[in-house]
Write a structure and sequence with these properties.
Helix content is 62%, strand content 6%. The longest helix has 30 residues.
Length: 256
């Protein structure tokens, strides 16, 4: 019996809402711990396998969909049920909203975990990681979009950017209020749903994109102490750009 829109979308939203639930629990439970230093989160230099579970499940679901008839059936049934929905361009803006909120809140005087420079480095690192992963997967999988126009559907870049920003917002402001993170993830989930209603992506595309976005931001926080030390540590750094008439480039020299 074919899956209905209700059951398909419920499964999708439950998967994404698990991210919000885990985020809330990760913030509330440590309040009962003896020391915040022992909390397992995505803070700089702190890594825990537990942090990989949710994004790993999301990415795994998407990758499995490349060869799973059951997941492909979900894709087709959701698309069939959404085909008459009104398309919108709002998702072209909401994908950046969670990340932009981090810098807007800081400018408004709501202090988060890091200063502007550190936040910029973390966000840039996450963006570089996610863009590299998304671009590579799009080129290697060549999944046709639901509208049939191009063959770069998997994974959803818009959803990746939205969930990257949501995790970024959560990490920066979870100690101020967990509701900042909840708001960010709500906007990110809405962006993912709009990619479906706009007939631009399959369910597996947006689920995988969400996982990649979350994982990229967590990785950026793990790497931040080392990148920050490299770029702004006690050593001396010099960047030498060059242009050979055909290509731009540059060399980085760092003295420890």
């Amino acid at each position: 019996m074919p899956l209905t829109l209700k059951s398909s979308m419920l499964a999708f939203l439950l998967l994404l809402s698990g991210t919000i639930t885990a985020a809330v629990n990760d913030t509330i439970k440590p309040a009962f711990a003896d020391s915040l230093k022992h909390r397992a989160d995505a803070s700089e230099g702190q890594f825990s396998v537990k942090q990989l579970i949710i994004p790993g499940v999301m990415i795994g679901y998407g990758v499995a969909g490349l060869n799973s008839k059951w997941i492909r059936d979900i894709n087709k049934n959701v698309r069939q049920d959404l085909r008459n929905n009104t398309h919108t361009s709002v998702d072209e803006f909401t994908l950046y909203a969670p990340a932009a909120s981090v810098f807007i809140l800081n400018a408004a005087g709501v202090k988060g975990k890091h200063n502007f420079r550190q936040r910029a480095v973390i966000y840039a690192t996450a963006a570089l990681l996610s863009n590299g992963i998304v671009k590579s997967l799009k080129e290697t999988t060549e999944v046709t979009r639901p509208n049939g126009l191009v063959h770069n559907s998997f994974p959803s870049g818009h959803t990746t950017a939205a969930f990257l920003g949501a995790e970024f917002l959560f990490q920066e402001y979870k100690d101020v209020s967990v509701w900042y993170g909840v708001a960010g993830y709500t906007v990110a989930t809405a962006t993912a749903v709009m990619r479906l209603t706009n007939d631009r992506h399959w369910v597996m595309d947006v689920v995988a994109g969400a996982g990649i976005g979350i994982l990229s931001t967590k990785a950026a926080y793990w790497l931040h102490p080392y990148i920050d030390a490299l770029l702004f540590g006690k050593g001396n750094a010099m960047i030498m750009p060059f242009y050979n008439g055909q290509q731009f480039g540059g060399n980085l020299v760092y003295q420890f």
